[in-house]
């Protein structure tokens, strides 16, 4: 049966500086580039071959996908970019330093904003200069569906239509798929695939640049999960 590989982008410049990133289009750090290339080598060593590739519209994920495919000699694989695989939108927290935010609001509150399933962060208004409403890559979207902030529950709700329309049919057809995306959009997919509870999903970590390989039966039930560790 088909294989699905999920990979969180390599370390970004804002991962390095400990800032909330969300939909801000931050680049990979030097370490992130190396992580992505190393992931591609592991994919090649594991003999994984893909029929389709998916990523977000944010360059840290796009570049990670390209490095992985290049290092595994699969840069030709058909690729689709979608906003539905974007990182969760951190609202008004975007750009803030996580340590300084914890000092201001308390560790417990910041942990809830970062890890809880259904608690929203402080929202970013549509007229804020940092709002995605002003970004032309989302120009074709109804402004009413462009978020001002998301939790994992909302992130899962906007990822699932893409899973059902695009990814699941490919897997059911026996095609191998790679998704290079973000910590929370991939946590949302993992929650669905592995049937993780709302409480337990708080503890799931997605390491940067680490491919996670899923196997499925012919009804798309997960049968195996392997991490290609760093």
From TrEMBL:
<dbReference type="GO" id="GO:0006096">
    <property type="term" value="P:glycolytic process"/>
</dbReference>
<dbReference type="InterPro" id="IPR001345">
    <property type="entry name" value="PG/BPGM_mutase_AS"/>
</dbReference>
<feature type="binding site">
    <location>
        <begin position="21"/>
        <end position="22"/>
    </location>
    <ligand>
        <name>substrate</name>
    </ligand>
</feature>
<comment type="pathway">
    <text>Carbohydrate degradation; glycolysis; pyruvate from D-glyceraldehyde 3-phosphate: step 3/5.</text>
</comment>
<dbReference type="GO" id="GO:0004619">
    <property type="term" value="F:phosphoglycerate mutase activity"/>
</dbReference>
<feature type="binding site">
    <location>
        <begin position="87"/>
        <end position="90"/>
    </location>
    <ligand>
        <name>substrate</name>
    </ligand>
</feature>
<dbReference type="InterPro" id="IPR029033">
    <property type="entry name" value="His_PPase_superfam"/>
</dbReference>
<keyword id="KW-0413">Isomerase</keyword>
<feature type="site" description="Transition state stabilizer">
    <location>
        <position position="182"/>
    </location>
</feature>
<feature type="binding site">
    <location>
        <begin position="8"/>
        <end position="15"/>
    </location>
    <ligand>
        <name>substrate</name>
    </ligand>
</feature>
<feature type="binding site">
    <location>
        <position position="60"/>
    </location>
    <ligand>
        <name>substrate</name>
    </ligand>
</feature>
<feature type="active site" description="Proton donor/acceptor">
    <location>
        <position position="87"/>
    </location>
</feature>
<feature type="binding site">
    <location>
        <begin position="114"/>
        <end position="115"/>
    </location>
    <ligand>
        <name>substrate</name>
    </ligand>
</feature>
<keyword id="KW-0312">Gluconeogenesis</keyword>
<comment type="function">
    <text>Catalyzes the interconversion of 2-phosphoglycerate and 3-phosphoglycerate.</text>
</comment>
<dbReference type="InterPro" id="IPR005952">
    <property type="entry name" value="Phosphogly_mut1"/>
</dbReference>
<dbReference type="Pfam" id="PF00300">
    <property type="entry name" value="His_Phos_1"/>
</dbReference>
<feature type="binding site">
    <location>
        <position position="98"/>
    </location>
    <ligand>
        <name>substrate</name>
    </ligand>
</feature>
<feature type="binding site">
    <location>
        <begin position="183"/>
        <end position="184"/>
    </location>
    <ligand>
        <name>substrate</name>
    </ligand>
</feature>
<comment type="similarity">
    <text>Belongs to the phosphoglycerate mutase family. BPG-dependent PGAM subfamily.</text>
</comment>
<feature type="active site" description="Tele-phosphohistidine intermediate">
    <location>
        <position position="9"/>
    </location>
</feature>
<keyword id="KW-0324">Glycolysis</keyword>
<dbReference type="GO" id="GO:0006094">
    <property type="term" value="P:gluconeogenesis"/>
</dbReference>
<protein>
    <recommendedName>
        <fullName>2,3-bisphosphoglycerate-dependent phosphoglycerate mutase</fullName>
        <ecNumber>5.4.2.11</ecNumber>
    </recommendedName>
</protein>
<dbReference type="InterPro" id="IPR013078">
    <property type="entry name" value="His_Pase_superF_clade-1"/>
</dbReference>
């Amino acid at each position: 049966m088909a294989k699905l590989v999920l990979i969180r982008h390599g370390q970004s410049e804002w991962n390095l500086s400990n800032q909330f990133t969300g939909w801000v289009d931050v680049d990979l750090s030097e370490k992130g580039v190396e992580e992505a290339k190393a992931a591609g080598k592991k994919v090649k060593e594991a003999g994984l071959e893909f029929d389709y590739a998916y990523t977000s519209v944010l360059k840290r994920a796009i570049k990670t996908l390209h490095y992985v495919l290049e290092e595994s000699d699969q840069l030709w694989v058909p690729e689709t970019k979608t906003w539905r695989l974007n990182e969760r939108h951190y609202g008004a927290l975007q750009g803030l330093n996580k340590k300084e935010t914890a000092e201001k609001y308390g560790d417990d509150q910041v942990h809830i904003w970062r890890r809880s399933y259904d608690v929203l962060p402080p929202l970013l208004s549509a007229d804020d200069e940092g709002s995605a409403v002003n970004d032309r890559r989302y120009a074709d979207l109804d402004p009413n569906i462009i978020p001002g902030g998301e939790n994992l529950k909302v992130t899962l709700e906007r990822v699932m239509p893409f899973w059902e329309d695009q990814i699941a049919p490919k897997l059911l057809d026996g095609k191998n798929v790679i998704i290079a995306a973000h910590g929370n959009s991939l946590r949302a997919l993992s929650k669905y695939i592995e049937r993780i509870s709302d409480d337990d999903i708080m503890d799931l970590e997605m390491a940067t640049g680490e491919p996670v390989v899923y196997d499925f039966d012919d009804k798309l039930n997960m049968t195996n999960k392997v991490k290609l560790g760093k």
